[in-house]
Amino acid sequence: MDIGEPAPDFVLTDQNGDRFTLSDYQGRRIVLSFHPLAWTSTCTGQMKALEEHWQEFDSLNTIAVGISVDSVPCKKAWARDIGLEMTTLLADFWPHGAVAQEYATFDAERGVAYRATIIVDEFQRIMFTKRYAPAETPDITEVIAALREQELERIEDIQVPKI
Questions:
Q1: Distance between CA 78 and CA 12 in Å, rounded?
Q2: Which contacts of 78-84 are long-range, i.e. CB under 8 A and separated by 24 or more positions?
Q3: What is the pairing mode between strands 19-21 and 29-34?
Q4: Would you give per-residue pLDDT tens digits along the chain (163 residues)?
Q5: Can you tell me which residues form the catalytic site (predicted)?
Q6: The domain at 11-157 falls in which architecture?
Q7: 88-91 and 11-14 as β-strands: parallel, antiparallel, unpaired?
Q8: Domain ranges of the chain
Q9: DSSP codes, 83-146
């Protein structure tokens, strides 16, 4: 996916059985945190980082969600086990990895998502994308910096009327 490209809309079910539709969040930025599978140490660290920074995301008009091919019951049990209370985990279970495929983050050989972060801006366009090595935990400070940088660019673009 290229920066500035429209983000494909999707509907997935979260760990609580609720529907999450990307287009319902137009006007907010969304961090799509793709991870291969629940219950692994790197994926756990990746999701805990989202949870630890949820207030900062909220202050930046951003929602961070985790996405993998795991099922809803698996996501629910994992969220409970690792203590997630604010972070939404989405099940890209069936059709298997369809959202990961749309976002070019699906590893067809292994049948799981690549570890990747994609940020969708408030206008539903891709504003940031990065793929990581399988054992590499995404740098959450880099993600937050990208969000802040875009916010500063928008502020600089605001025209102040002359009096």
A1: 17
A2: 78/15, 78/38, 78/39, 79/15, 82/44, 82/47, 82/48, 83/48, 83/51, 84/15, 84/47, 84/48, 84/51
A3: unpaired
A4: 899 999 999 999 999 999 999 999 999 999 999 999 999 999 999 999 999 999 999 999 999 999 999 999 999 999 999 999 999 999 999 999 999 999 999 999 999 999 999 999 999 999 999 999 999 999 999 999 999 998 766 655 555 555 6
A5: 43 (cysteine sulfenic acid (-soh) intermediate)
A6: 3-Layer(aba) Sandwich (3.40)
A7: antiparallel
A8: 11-157
A9: T-SS-EEEE-TTTTTHHHHHTT-EETTTTEEPSEEEEE-TTSBEEEEEE--TTPPP-HHHHHHH
Structure tokens at 68: 């993998």
- The pTM score is 0.92
d(CA 150, CA 138): 19
In sequence order, the 6+-apart residues with CB closer than 8 A to the CB of 146 are 119, 127, 128
Cα distances (Å, whole numbers) of residue 138 to 68, 94, 102, 135: 15, 25, 21, 10
Chain mean position to CA 66: 5
Task: Please give the positions annotated as active site.
Answer: 43
